[in-house]
Amino acid sequence: MKEIVVISGKGGTGKTSVALSLACTGPEKIVLADCDVDASDLHLILKPQKISEDDFYSSDLAVIDYDKCTDCGKCSEICRFDAIGNRENKYYINDLNCEGCGYCSHVCPVKAISMVKQKDGVLTVSDTRLGKRLFHAELGPGAENSGKLVAKVKNTAKKYARENEYDYLLVDGSPGIGCPVISSLSGADLVVLVTETTLSGFSDLKRVVELVKKFRIKMGCIINKSDINAEICGDIREYLESENIELMSEIPYTEDFPRAISEGLSPAEYSLDLKKEFEQIWNKIINLTGEMK
Questions:
Q1: Which of 32, 50, 51, 52 is nearest to 42 (CA)?
Q2: What b/e string do you get for 162-174 counting C-beta neighbours within 10 Å, with b at 16 or more?
Q3: What is the C-alpha to C-alpha distance for residues 174 and 73, in angstroms, rounded to an integer?
Q4: Could you report the per-residue pLDDT of 230-242, keeping only the tens digit for each?
Q5: Residue 136: phi, psi to the nearest 5?
Q6: Which residues contact 10 (CB under 8 A, 6 or more apart)?
Q7: Taking CA atoms, which of 16, 23, 53, 142 is between 20 and 30 Å from 154?
Q8: pLDDT band at 144 (very low <50, low <70, confident <90, very high)
């Protein structure tokens, strides 16, 4: 089983539209994982039917036992996150500010503060209209540990794919280079980079390439909206060649992308030309991953 991760250095490059199109044009024996847990949206187009749901507990939250609390204020004095306030001579925890460090529970002289595991999100397993299984998750508002939730999504999807002898795991990762992206890269066989021909798109492509290089994972790149700036497109081509990254496709700007999404379809389902293009991209993915055997 080969793991393909689709990422971009910034938002707005068309990464998710690319991932959707790859999902729709890929081999039959493929499992899908949406690891953009802060803003998962593959399910909006794939119309999933939920099979199971699993709560995700990760962070700790301080809780005061008022039967024990003597209102001495030591917890408030040492809290560096302004998470412990006082109202009408009673101390309370501001849930949004609490970082779960546990220092307050250690200094409380009467052991009135305990650290309680919090529900930070939900992992869902679904069947989609494509007949392909989707593993996706939603991080709770203000919740942390998105990297850990990404790891849970990936590991659950990978376990299912291996047990059922699937050929590919296709992962839609987060934009940027933060913890969720780092977590999505772990264990990948091939990274598909999606960029656009803007100064910010090129700059962020370089940043994400430097990140992927640290994992020593083979890369390919899709230049989306390739015709909006011919000069930058040429610079990206030269950069990819210098980094030995395969240029998988140059997709000119087309309104078929937003039109497809507005109709609940992937671009590859909406346009025959785009379907053929993504089938060619899959041929390159298969060739690249085949070289790893």
A1: 32
A2: eeeebebbbbbbb
A3: 41
A4: 999 999 999 999 9
A5: -145, 160
A6: 175, 176, 200, 201, 204
A7: 142
A8: low
**Which residues have C-beta within 8 Å of that of residue 237, sequence separation ≥ 6?**
223, 247
Beta strand pairing status for 2-8 and 168-175?
parallel
Q: Which of 171, 189, 170, 196 is nearest to 181 (CA)?
A: 171
At 119, list the tokens.
């529900």
| Interval 198-223 mean pLDDT | 96
Please report which helix (H) or strand (E) contains residue 135, including its range.
strand 133-139
3-class state of residue 152 by DSSP: helix
Task: Write down all domains in the chain, each with its CATH number in brackets.
Answer: 2-47+128-290 (3.40.50.300), 60-119 (3.30.70.20)
The pLDDT, as a whole number, for residue 214 is 95
* Closest to 185 in 3D by CA, of 172, 167, 204, 194: 172
